[in-house]
Amino acid sequence: MILSITQTKDGWLWLGGPTGLYRFDGMQFEQYAPSNAPLLTRNVSMVNAFADGSLWIGYRTGGAARLQQGRIRNYSERDGLPGRSVWGVEQDGDGRVWAATSQGMYYLENERWHAPASSWKVPGGQYKTLMRDRQGALWAQGDTGVYLLRPGNQQFAKAPVDSGTGVLFNLPDGSVVSWDAGHGRFNRLAGPAQGGYPRQWERLGDPASLLFDRRGDLWIGLQGGLEYRTANGAPRRTTPPQGLSGPAVGAMFEDREGNIWAATSSGIDRFRSRRLARIEVPESAIGAAIMADDSGGAWIGGFHVAANDAGQASITPLWPARQQGWANMLTGFTRTRDGALWGSSYGALRRIQGKDSRRIELPAAIGKLVVKSVLADQNDDLLAAVQQLGLYRRRSSGEWEKAGNGGEVSVMARSDALGLWLGYFPGSVAHAEGAGWRSYGQADGLTLGLVMALHPHGRHLWAGGDNGLALFEAGRFKQVNGLHGETFDGISGIVELENGDLWLNASAGLFRIASEEIAQFKRAPDYRVRYERLDQLDGLEGTAPRVVPSPSLVLSSDSLLWIVRSTGVFRLDPREQLPHSPAQPAIIKTIGPPGEGKPVQQHAQFAPGVSALQIDYSVPLLAMPERVRFRYRLEGVDADWQDVGARRNAYYSNLAPGDYRFRVAASDYNGLWTGQPTVVHFTVAPSMTETWWFKALCGVLLLSAAYLAYRWHINRVSRQMAHRLQERVSERERIARELHDTLLQSVQSLILHIHAAVMKLPPKDAMRTQLEHALQQADDVVDEGRGRIRELRGEDDKLSFPDALLAAAHRLQLCEANVIQLKMCGSLRQLDSAIYQEAMAIAIEAIANACRHARAQRIEVELQYGLREFRCIVRDDGVGIPAEILSDGGRRNHWGMRGMAERAARINAKLLLRSSAETGTEWQLTLPAALAYTQ
Question: Is there a contact between 86 and 108 (Cβ–Cβ < 8 Å)?
C-alpha cells in the first residue's frame, strides 16, 4: 500500500510506503537504495520533491531524510526530530524547511531541527498536511486548525475557518481549500469564491484520499473504488471489475504531464487523457458508411449522430428499422443539390430528405446485389458501384444505364477541379476525360494494390490502398514512404486539411503528415516523410475497414475528424497536437559488467580484465513511455548511432583497455530526438601484459635478443672466415717454403757455381765483365723472389695499413698523377690479417685502374676507422668507367673488377661503385667492426 507519491525535477516518479522507497520511469518500478547510506527504516510515511531537485522522505517511526544526486542525509532524534511519524516536509517562502509530525511542527536550521518558539504562534499537537501555494505561502493543517505563514513573516496566522483535520489544496483559480473530514465537507480558506460551493464537492461519502487536478476536476479515493467528478457532467466511477488494480484507493498524485496516479491496496493505476473520443453508436452502425453533415454531426449507417465535447452522443434513426439483415445496411452516402441524402444498400438505394425515407429498388436486370458506394455527379445523376457488375448511372428521370469502362469498381470520388475518378479491382484507377476514360496502372507509378481511397484536393489527387499512399500530379502517381520503413499500408480514408496537413486512416493507426513534409516530398519524391501516428495509446482501437465503407475518414463542419474503425467510431480534433514529452534528457542508471552494474560516477574506473559491460539507461516519461525510442553510441567502437527502439540496455563485449565516452539520447513521443545526449566517461584499466611499460620492456627484450643473435652470427661468421683465412695463410706459407727451398736455393746455387767460374777468368776479360753483370741481375732476381716470399708469409704486416697502402701505391709507378692523398677518420686500429690482405688488394686494384684506364690527375684514399664499421674509399677525377663495362661487371677477359667483387664477397664486405664521366669514380669498401678489427 503506497502512502505518498511525488515527482522530482529529473522526471522520476517516487513512491513511499511501509515496504520502502520506490521510483518509476514509466516502464519499470525499482526499489531504491541510496549510494552512501541506507534509509533509517523501510517504513516510509511521505515523499515530497523540492524545486532544487532534492527528495524529502518522512519515516513513520520517526525521522526524515533528504535525498539528492543519489546520496542521502538522514535526520533522527539526535538531530532534533521527535521519535514520531513525519507526515509532511515542505519549504516556506523564505527557503526554510518545515516538518509536520505527530508531536508538532519543526524547522531545520544549520542541519538541526528545532521546535518553533511561542513567538511563531503555531500550537503543538499533531500535524498531517503541509502545502506551499503558488504565492509562496506555507499552509499547515493540524488537529487545532489550519495555519498560514506568508513569505517574510516570522509567525503563523490561523485561517478564519475552523477547517478540522484533512488535506489542503491549491486550486487552479488560486483559491486554497481544506477538507474537513469530521464534517465531510470542503472549506474555502483563500481566493475567489467562484460563485459559491461547487456541486461536485457535495456528498463525497467517506473518502480515503482526494485530489484536484490542473483542470479543477475532483478525484475521490474510496474504499470501494475511484470516483471522478467534473464541474459539468455526471460523476464517473471505476472499481476492480472495470480494471482498477484494487478496491481501496490511498495516495493520488498528478504528474507534470497531467497523468493521474492512484495507489490502491493491490497496485498502481495511471489515468490519462486520450486524444480520441469514442462515439457510442448502435452495433448496427459499426462498420457502416459515414458522411459529415452541416452542423458538426455525421450520418453513420441508418443513424444521425451528434456528439458533445466529451464524446457523449445523441443518436436519431433515419428510418424505422422494421426489417432485419442487410436491408438496413448502408455502404455509402452522397448528397444531391436538392438536399436529399442518398445511401447505397443491398439491392437498392435509399433516399432520405427530412422525415421522408424511401427505398428505391435496383432494376431487375441488375438483381439483388450490394451497391458498394454511390456518388452524385454534376447534374445530380447518381453513379452506383454494383458488386461484380461495375458502374451504373441512374438518371434524374429514374432510368438506369451501364457506365464506366468495364470492371468492378472499388471506390469513387469527384471534385469540380479534377472531375470523376474511379478505383477498379484489382489495382487500377480511371479518370473521366470528356466522353472517354484514361486508365492508370503500374506503368504510371500506381503500385498500391487494391485502391480503397481516393481524395481529390485542389489540383492533385491522393490515392490510398493495400500497399500505402500515392500522390497524383502531372500525369503520374508517386508513392509516399515514411521514416523508419513506414509504408502506410491499408488506407481506406484520406483527408487533407486546408492547412495542408494530411490525415490517413490506415491499418496500423491514424497518421498525420504535416504540410511541410508534403511540400518536401513534392520537391523530392525520394524523400521519406516524418509523421505522427495515433493508436491505442491515444484511444484509437481496431483497424481501418477495407473497401466498405469508403471513405472511412471524414471532416465534419466544425473541423473535427470522424474515424470509422473495426471496433467503432472515434472523433478527433486535429488542431490538438500530440503533446511533446517534457525536455528530459536520458538518464544513465548503472554501468558495469553484466549483472554487476553500479550507479554512474563522474568517471567510472574498471579493473583489468573487464571486457564486457552492460549500461542501463532510461528517461522518466510517464504518459506514453512505450513510444520513447533510444539511440546510443560508444566512441571508438560504434561507427554511428545505434537506434535500438524502446530497449533500455546497451551491451558491449571484447572491449580493449582505454578511455571511452558513451552517449545516449531519447526521443519524444513523436520519435523526434530532443535535446543533447547524456554522456558518461569510463576507463577500462589494462592488465600487466597490456600496459605500455610491459610492451616497452618486451620491445627492449626483443631488441636485446636480436642484438645477441646478431653478435652470435657475426662471431660465427668471424670464426668461419678466420678458419678459411688461416687455411689460405697456411697454403701461402707452404708455397713460400717450396719456393725458398727449391727455386731460390737452386738459383742461388747456380749463381755460386757461375760466380766460381767467373773468378777463374782474367779480371779485365770482356767475358768476365759480361758474366758479372748477369750475376748482378740474378742477385736482384733472388732479392725480388725473397720479397715475394715475405709477402706470401705475411711478414710485411709490420707496416700499418695506411703506410703499407702508400708504399704499395708508390711501387706501382703506373701514371703521372700527383702524389696520392690519404685521409683518415677515427683512431687507427689494427686490421685482421686476412682482412688486411684482401682490403689492400682491393684498394691497390682501384688505384691501378684509376691510373691505367681513367687517366686520373688526382687520387684520394679515405680510411674511416668507425666504432661500428671500417670503410676504405678510393676516389679519382678521371673519365669514369663506361656504362657497358659497369653493366657487364668488368671488361671481357679482364678480371680486375670481378676480382675486387670476389675478394669483397670472401670477407663479407660491401663494395659500392659510383662512376660517371663528370664526377669520376668512387669505390667504397665497408666491413663491420667486429670483422675488420683484431679486437
Answer: no
| pLDDT > 90: percent of the chain | 53
Kind and range of the H or E element at 900? helix 896-906
DSSP notation for 484-500: GG----S--EEEE-TTS
Give the integer Cα–Cα distance in Å for 278 and 287.
14
Identify which has the larger pLDDT, 371 or 738: 371
Helix (H) or strand (E) segment spanning residue 694 = helix 692-738
Candidate from 108-122, 171-185, 611-625, 719-733 with smallest mean pLDDT: 719-733
**In contact, 244 and 236? CB cutoff 8 Å:** no
Q: What's the average model confidence in pLDDT over 343-358?
A: 89
Strands (E), 600-686: 603-606, 613-618, 630-634, 642-645, 649-652, 658-666, 678-684
What pLDDT score does 267 carry? 93
> How much of the chain is helix, strand and coil, in % rounded to 5?
20, 35, 40
Residue owning grid cell 436491408? 327
Whether the upstream peptide bond of residue 38 has omega within 30° of 0, thus cis, is no
- pLDDT band at 576, cuts 50/70/90? confident
Q: 506-515, 579-588, 843-852, 897-906: which range is least confident on average?
A: 579-588
Closest to 427 (Cα-Cα) out of 413, 402, 414, 409: 409
Q: Give the C-alpha separation, 526 to 692, whole Å.
A: 52
Buried b (16+ CB within 10 A) or exposed e, 499-512: eebbbbbbbebbbb
Q: Are 886 and 915 within 8 A, CB to CB?
A: yes
777 CB neighbour count, 10 Å cutoff: 9
Tell me if residue 148 falls in helix, strand or coil: strand
What's 11's DSSP letter? S
